[in-house]
Amino acid sequence: MRVIKYLAIILGVFIVLIAAVLAYVASTFDPNQYKPQIVQAVKERTHRSLKLEGDIKLAFFPTIGARLGRATLSEPESNNEFAGVEDLKVAVKLLPLLSKQVVVDAVEVKGLRANLVRHKDGKSNFEDLAAGSGPAAPPPKASGAEAPVKIDIDHIAIEDSALGFRDEAKGEQYALSKLNLKTGRVASGVPTRIDLSFAAQSNKPKLELAIDLKTRVMVDLERQVYSFEDLGMKAKGTAAGISDLDAKVSGNATAKVKTGEFSTDKLSIAVTGSTGKDKLDVKLEAPRLTFAADRASGEKVTVIASIIGEQGTTRANLTLPGIEGTMQAFKSSAMLLDLDLKRADLTLKEKVSSPLTGNIQARQLNLPKLAASIQAGGPNLPGKSLSGELAGSASVDAAKQHLQANLSGKVGDSNVKARIAVMDLTPLSVNFDADIDRLDIDRYLPQKAAGTPQKSASLQKQAEQPLDLSGLKNLNLNGKLQIGSLKASNVKAANVRLDVRAANDRLDINPLSATLYQGTLAGAVAVNASATPTFTVRQKLTGVSVGPLLKDLADYDMLEGRGNVAVDVTTQGNRASALKKALNGTAAVNLADGAVKGINIAGSIRNAQARLGSLKGEQTQQANKAEKTDFSELRATFNIKNGVAHNSDLSLKSPLIRVGGEGDVNIGEDSINYLVMASIVGTLKGQGGGDIGNLKGLTVPVRVSGPLAAPSYKLDFGSMVTEAAKQKVEQAVRGKLEERLGGGAAKDGSKGGSLQEGLKEGLKGLFGR
User: Fold this and answer.
1) The whole model's pTM is what?
2) Which tens digit of pLDDT belongs to each residue from 564-577?
3) What is the DSSP string of 369-419?
4) 664 and 608, same structural domain?
């Protein structure tokens, strides 16, 4: 026993002596005199410049540690700063090291800053520090007799620090600033309080948040268990396209990595913010959720969301009853979603229900028996209400950002079948294939009250709204739509097919085909939603009855006939009036067996014949829809420039007349200025008048001008009288010439003279001597 006592005394004296030596060294040794050697060693080893502007302080007992004042480290082979710190202290307790336990007394950092960069060639400005200067030595083999190294930190304090990362190849930037962290004791299996705050910024995606986190954390490295108790997190700023974001998270969470188990208790998430001019409010409540490799269970989960904006209000309530199963295959008896939407006078209520199955590890959800009911109401709906029922299935693969739905049912008077697939969420990419038996779009648009007076052109321009093509921005869409019977803008069509593709702010509908008005339509439409939107339309109507088509489309009742119409035009602008004035391209018309309404050219000539001597100058008459000029053939082509369609090859044929012409149709101003030349080629017998075959070959100028909806017609009767008199003179001359030169005997019985004498005598007889 005395031996042990003496050994203890000797050991105690030895420890006191060591402590005295360390205290003496600490008080007499000045590490600052070795700054040049330290700087040089860093330069040789890393090719970086180290600046030590503060004092280095060492401690040897009862802790081994150092305090480093202001210091900076440069980029490799550069003087640009890579990292810096205002103050750094690290201290390790001495005595626990004897039993291979690392007990860090403190880690204190103030004003840390670092700028990490990954260059376009894939190399980074920190990989040399991570790799070291030489090959890494293999880790020592653990010995069963040796005690494991344990880490135990009394506290960590980080104050006013910042970290930045820039990926030059991807153009991405991330930054943490105003970083502050305070902890209690940090040791495996020991709960510790954490107080963390920082500001986070990134450009892809756009993010700017101020985050404050308070919780009690327990980390058990041996069992790989991580738990958060009394979690309280707040985030404010901009993220995920939401501005004025205010998010709060509370509850408890535990993750057991080794067993693959995750559980939450009293989890609550609340998010408010703005998306454009809309206000967003979302709340999630999950009393208890547990997911493990061999089981999954949970109580009722509720999500309540609302969006309130200038256009209206949308509210959604999602309820998910108890969950059971495993992480690879869990299920819920019935998911229920209530959706309530209000837009001006329109209200929409929708209920969606389905059993739910899923796989947490694969991040997949399935709705195998989806049922949806829709009820809409509003003064502009048919019968002021609309209902529908849809059924089918849907699935979500969050890992791949895929969503797919197959639905069929009836909405209003339309039977619908649709397949929708969301291929990506960022950016949104959608494929679809839809089939509708009949659709009357006009039924769902505001109806104009009977007797409503027409607005003047100036008022219409003032009330004109710019086109809104924002829906095409960042939209990726690819699909097909087939409609058995369609009515839109009062135009009726059948067997409608549209192949739609949208990408890069551009929409293409090609082909666009249908049968309509006893004929067919085939062509394409393109829209480019740039700063100044552009539109391209290529359409060919074949065998179409144009009269009913124009009447239904534009309430234009001035042309009849059946045939072909081709249009190939482009335009640009963000208002309808601008689009009309910027129209460029070509158009062609080829019709048969029709009529031009508003004037009866044959009747006008007949009436003029009776008054041929009294008519002078131009006579104007307004369009009269009761009058019309029949034709057996009508052909014309138009060159369109800046909203003005010019034609110079009009050809209208009928048994009585032939019509040509040249002029302009000003589409931008809805007006016409056109000169028609009508020539008599037949007889008026059977046309409601007497025979004017003696006017055969007569050409009558007709000036068409004024608004397109109600043009006026000016017949140039002065030219007509002159033309008729000229024709009579020519006929008289021709008769005398025929009498003199026709090969018959002269009145004096002679055989006839020379051609000169015949002409001379003929003119004398016609005009006198």
Assistant:
1) 0.61
2) 999 999 999 888 88
3) EEEEEEEEE-TTSGGGEEEEEEEEEEEEETTTTEEEEEEEEEETTEEEEEE
4) yes
